[in-house]
Design goal:
This protein has 720 residues and is of the alpha/beta class. Helix content is 29%, strand content 18%.
Amino acid sequence: MKKEKQKEYRKRAKELVEEMTLEEKVSQTIHSAAAIPRLGIKAYNWWNEGLHGVARAGVATVFPQAIGLAATFDEDLLFEVADVISTEARAKFHMQQKFNDTDIYKGLTFWAPNVNIFRDPRWGRGHETFGEDPYLTSRMGVRFIRGMQGDDENYLKVAACAKHFAVHSGPEAERHSFDAAVTKQDMFETYLPAFEACVKEGNVETVMGAYNRTNGEPCCGSRTLLKDILRTAWGFEGHVTSDCWAVRDFHEHHGVTGSALESVALAMENGCDLNCGSLFLYLTEAVNQGLVSEERLNEAVENLMVTRLKLGMFEEPDAVPFNRITYEDNDTGEHRELNFKASRKSFVLLKNEGNMLPLDKSRLKTIGIIGPNSNNRKALIGNYEGTASRYYTVSEGIQDYLGDEVRIMVSEGCHLFKSRVSGLGQENDRLSEVRGVCEASDVIIACMGLDSGLEGEEGDEGNEYGSGDKPDLSLPGLQQQVLEEIYKSGKPVVLVLLSGSALAVTWADAHIPAIVEGWYPGAEGGRALAAVLFGGYAPEGKLPVTFYRSTEELPAFTDYAMKGRTYRYMKQAALYPFGYGLSYTDFSVSGISVSQSRISKGGSLIIKAVLKNVGSMKGAETLQIYVKSCAPGTPNAQLKAFVKEELKPGEAKELSVTLTDKAFALRDERGDLVLEAGAYNVYVGTQQPDKRSAELTGKTPECMEVFVEQRAVLEKCCIG
């Protein structure tokens, strides 16, 4: 957006606010903002969700959950998906406005993406994120925001929101009172980079605070986060919203204030502009008592009016190009095909012993599909979801794909987490059916995993385990027992996992020949999975999270130190490593070169490599670049660049990436970003340079040395 236009909006917002009474200004600071007819301001509800499609407001395209989108390692795809979400948002908004529907979830301000770091696989909301890596999360977050907000010079298509700021990733049960204690080193190296990228590169319009405290300060009233870092250091010019009813937590759960009035004052004075909730109605009293300056209140309301002006809400309809989007542009055939594409690109092939996949339908007479996720719509969609006009579960997708060519037999196998399917049945009441299907089938597709009733947000899911977090990494209920029963049949087995997080499928890794991680693959998930299982497309996803071998390997859930967490700091071998994923075809990386072997402050270098499809099937592969300091006590090799390319058999392409000085720098204990003198290893390949990845793929990335001759501080920490 043009700077001149932004200045014009700021001027117009100031003029609007100057015309408001104190009560009118206060009425604009809650998510269900009141109308001010005399100023031409309509009622507006700021609360809307669009994590992987327009949510909670009727029919819209339901894309794969965010963790599945991250597994595509495809920035361009993220942009396409977000562009479609914002088109459907406009289509629905214009229709709703036509019929004077200003209800919740029907605005143009979307509280997505979630760029928190998925530091612990037990966290129930991890599937809303782009995974465990700050660099991958940054890249996906920025492209998602750009797709949502559009590239018009004068108007936003919709307003995106980076959440939850900051240092937030469970436990869900304690989030309203929890204090995330974190060092400056971990904060600036792990928890903040994605937010900084969203602000500085993505120009995100909104930032949402988190429920928890960070180092003693409630995030939605944190001077450190909202003023010192977000506004002063990063230059954020949009508006800040609280998480829903988070301000109430200040006095009710965190105990940092003694009353609602004090909580409201703390949040507003420290930079929170909008209250998801109604507590900010106390602002009238807070201003009258001198607890909040009217100047600060004016600033908050100006920030909110600027966003509405950017969205074209006060313009003549013909002036805003996005107003040409009609309701017919929602849930189109083109959007469903993009959804199919996103879904099939998200699948990660974890194991394929003896090239069991793809399945050859011409050699099969009967296929058994067994498991609680075989026909589970909830396992397609994750949370913060919309309503699809058509869903394809795994069994439906395979049945449609094969038609009458192959006999399909289906069994739920067991309940997702309970000991029986029928309330009056005996324990494991589908066991005989499992055995019968196995006996009659040539191959078994076992559909196991989770759904958003087992992992999700505290208070959002009435799940059996409570809070939304997972108690461990095991397959819940009787699933493991049923899987072992299927294995005992002696029939070939493909295990399809639908989940939003890592599962410790160590037994399956040792016994089941083919394993696919399908995430929550969206409304087209079953159709897309069928196309991949039967060879219509090669799988191309990569893991955006580490799959561990057991819960016992993990540090305490409440410990926010990064030591021992994620691929960047763990010491043990993973079950399946971050960045790992197989294909039906094969790729080689050759001709690797680096433009220079030394780098200094302000410098950069270019890495080139030739990626070639040396297999017999069209497919896509991700070139991954990792950097590791050779100094003792430094993190493992970290992802610093990636580029994805689709190639036909025999096709090759030279790829090029640029690494700046920041790719080699690390945060020190003071939080400063330091480029230390010494040697660095740069790894170029299609996976990370760990032993387990090499064991699984038979490949190792090429290693090159780059040297830094002189220590340099690239960035001083912005907090004392």
